Amino acid sequence: MKNRLFKYLMLTGGVLALMAQRSGDTPAPVERLRLIFAGDIMVHQAQILSAQTPEGYDFDASFEYVKPLLQSADLAIGNLELTMPGEEPYLGYPMFRCPEELATALRIAGFDLMMTANNHSNDSGAAGVINTIEVLEESGFYHTGTFQNREEMEAYYPLIVYKKGFKLAFLNYTYSTNGIRTRHPSVVNPIDSAQISRDLRVARDLQPDAIIVMMHWGLEYQLVENKEQRKLTKQLLEGGADLIIGAHPHVVQPARWETADGEQEVLVAYSLGNFISGQLKQHTDGGILVEVELSKSNGHAMVEEAAFIPVWRHVERLPSGKKTYRTLPIAAFEYEDSERIRLTETDRAAMLRYAQQTRHRVGLPERPVTLESLEEYPSLPR
């Protein structure tokens, strides 16, 4: 029976293949694009001090172990929750004013696109909004969410990015600027329901392969999304968003597939937590990277795969007493010899505790990462 079935399948498959060959039909090629999203990029006062050198500031060490992951993506996107005013004083919480060298370090690490609309966008006034944008542009970043003036926003929003045959539209909004009024001529995108609907309509008219919305929303330190986040998600889904990524709570909130009125499922990651920071509250010592693969065939694009990579903020204490803040892919160091990165037993216990508490909240598969895979991970042409 098995042999007869095998012969039948071979025969019919051969006939179908021959028919396709004669008719000139060939399977449509599938294009693929890999995106990686990181959570809140913050620089507190202790991080500024740790990066200080006789020549200025050097943040490169912070991203040494995630650099291969970021560089392997076609586009790496982060949430820049600070300002770079270009002059001292450089400060952490509550008014984030960071040295410009951070932009260079982030670009070298592999980031391509920065979202800049957040509750700290106005921490150094209109001059800070404008200078942060100028620094990002000089460093070779795509960026959106804040603008030097209204004319720039009207010309370049939604942000359209072309990459490997894909056309992507990015939108970015924040719930607040901590009560600091946005000063003319700068613009910070607020979460405004009517404006979001208009922006989504404009984005749809541009006919991108995907509309990606980055939201600065929710309540700080809450491990589950709130009613307002779910309400906004519904609006975004109904408006045509193909992917929704959240920031601000500084802790990881659920990521899951959701639908609007039974339509195509859309990935919603409510909060990616902290990518790098000096925060000390429980659950703020890490976050997740979300890796998404888009595929496109016959002009139709979709999110084909999604996975997460848990990361942890390690404060490495050097023999000299100097500290180095690093973002570690947790899975690569769970069983690694602690001497490699001066991971003390106390550090390791904290990292494993964070991993255990975080992994069960993410409704996505975890992508395995080992030290060997980091060393061998291919860096794609940029």
Describe the fold and architecture:
- The protein has about 375 residues and is of the alpha/beta class.
- It has one domain: Purple Acid Phosphatase, chain A, domain 2, CATH 3.60.21.10.
- The protein has 11 helices and 18 strands.
- Strands 1, 4, 5, 6, 15, 16, 17 and 18 form an 8-stranded mixed sheet that branches. A 6-stranded mixed sheet has the order 8-9-11-12-14-13, covered by helices on one side.
- Helix 4 links the parallel strand 4 (about 75-80) and strand 5.
- The model is unreliable at about 1-25 and about 380 (pLDDT under 50).
Quick structural gist:
The chain is of the alpha/beta class. It contains 11 helices and 18 strands.
Which helices and strands appear, and what pairs or packs with what?
Elements: H1 2-23, E1 31-41, H2 45-51, E2 52-53, E3 56-57, H3 67-72, E4 75-80, H4 101-109, E5 113-115, H5 125-138, E6 142-144, E7 146-147, H6 150-156, E8 159-163, E9 166-174, E10 187-188, H7 193-205, E11 210-216, H8 227-238, E12 243-247, E13 255-258, E14 266-269, E15 274-276, E16 286-297, E17 300-317, E18 323-329, H9 330-333, H10 345-359, H11 371-376
Parallel strand pairs: 1-4, 1-15, 4-5, 5-6, 9-11, 11-12, 12-14
Antiparallel strand pairs: 1-16, 2-3, 7-10, 8-9, 13-14, 16-17, 17-18
